Give the backbone structure.
Amino acid sequence: MSSRGWRPTLLLAVVAGAAGYRTPSLRPVVARRHAAVALAEQVAYTGRPLKVAIAGGGVGGLTTALAMLKAGYDVTLYEKTGQFARFGGPIQFASNALSTLKAIDERLFERVLAKFTFTGTRRCGIKDGLRADGEYRMTPVSDPRYLFDPTVPADWYLEFPLKACADFFQLPYTGVIDRPDLQEILLEECRALKPDFIVNGSPVQGYRPTAAGVQPMLADGSTVEADVLVGADGIWSAVRAQMYGEGGVREASAGGLTRQGCSYSGYTVFAGEFVPERGADAFRDYYECGYKVYIGPRKYFVTSDVGDGRVQWYSFLCKPPGTKRAGDSWEGGESTDAQGSSVIADLKKEHEVARGGQARGWAQGWEICTSGRGLLTAVKLTSLAHSPQGWTPEISYVLDSTPASAVEQRDLYDRWPELFRSWAQGSTVLIGDAIHPMMPNLGQVSARGATGGTDETQGVGGVTNPKRI
C-alpha cells in the first residue's frame, strides 16, 4: 500500500509535537510504542522513512529538523538566505527552552552551555525608571517604608523568581547565547546526521496539497515532493499566508496598523550593545544583576548581561509604525554612525522632562498605544509630571557608552493566538512565530521556537503507521 492512503488526521498528528500538543488519540500510542519500533513499522509500510520538508531555518526550524533527523526521518530544510552568516545578537533562552534542548540531545545541550551566559542565577526584575538614583543599587525589593520615609530607596518594584522556579521544577537556569553560536551548533548537529539537509536560497513561497502528501513551492518556481510540510518561516510566514488566506506576505492594511493578519503592537524597539567601563562606579551591579527592566510612562528600557563583558539594551517606545530611524540587521540593513548618533541623542531626550514637566523630543504629538494585544487607540502625550528631573541617569550612561553603529530598530507586530482555527491543513502544519509569535519582552521567542520541535521524536514515532490512528 502506498502513502496515498494516508488520512489528514495522520498527517496532522505527525507534526502535532511541533505545534506544541498531541491529539488525545495519540497519547496511548506514544505511551505504548517506542519511537524506534514505530519507525521500523513505517519503513516497512512505505518502503522509506517519512519525508519532511521544513520552511525556514531559524531556531524553530533547525531544532525541529534536528529532532526529526535524530528520529531517522528524511528531512530537508528550505531557507531563504543564500548562505548562513554570523548575524544577529544575543537571545535569551529560558529554562523551558534549555530543558527542550537537553531532551533532544545531551551533547547538543552541553555544546550550548559551553557558549552560554547564565542570567537567571542573579537578580532579574523591574526597576523604577524615574526613581532609580543612578547608583546601580541592589536595594531591597518593594520596601513599603519608602511610602512614608523619603530616605528609603524605591529602585526595585519586584524580582522575577527565575532561579527559584528552575530549582523547584529541576530545570536549567535561564541565560543568553549569541544567535550565531546557537545557529552554528544546530547546523553542525544536523549536518552530522544528513550533510545535505539544508537547501539555501530556496524559500518556500506556497504549497500544493496532493493525494500523496504535499508539494512545497519554491521561489524559483519549482516544486518538491514531501509527506509533511512544517511552516517554521516566522511571523511573516508564506505558509500561513496561504493557509489562512491572508494575501501577500507583509501585506499591509490602510494605515499600516495590520500586516498579514498581525496587528501593530503599539511599540517600536531600539536596541544596542556596549561594554561597561571596568573599575568605574557606573554599572557596578554588573555581577549581581542578570537583566533589569526600567519601567515608566509609555516606555520601558531593558538591559541584560550577554556575556564576555557585554551588555545589551532595548528601548521600547510607544510610537506609530514606520518611525524608521535606524537599520535592522534582520532586514539586511545596518545603521550608519550618523543614524545611530541621532537615535542615541533622541533616546536621551525621550527619557528627560523639560522644565515645567512637558515632554521633549519625539514624545510630543500623537502616538499609537495599546490597551491590549491588537487593540489600538490613538492617544496624545501631554506631560510626564511624575518626575521633573526625568528618568534615571543609569539609562543615560548606557546610551552614552553605546557605539553609534550598534543601534538598531524594529517595529513590533503581534497576533492573537489561534484558538479556533486549526494550525494544520492536510499535511501542512505551522509552528513557532509562524502561528503563535510572542513579544520580545516575554523572553519566550526563542523558547517557543525551540519547543516547537520538542515532541517531534515521540509524535512522529507514534503515528507513522496509519493503522495506529
Notes: The longest helix spans residues 179-193. The chain is about 25% helix and 25% strand. The CA atoms of residues 418 and 435 lie 7 Å apart. The first strand starts at residue 51 and ends at 55.
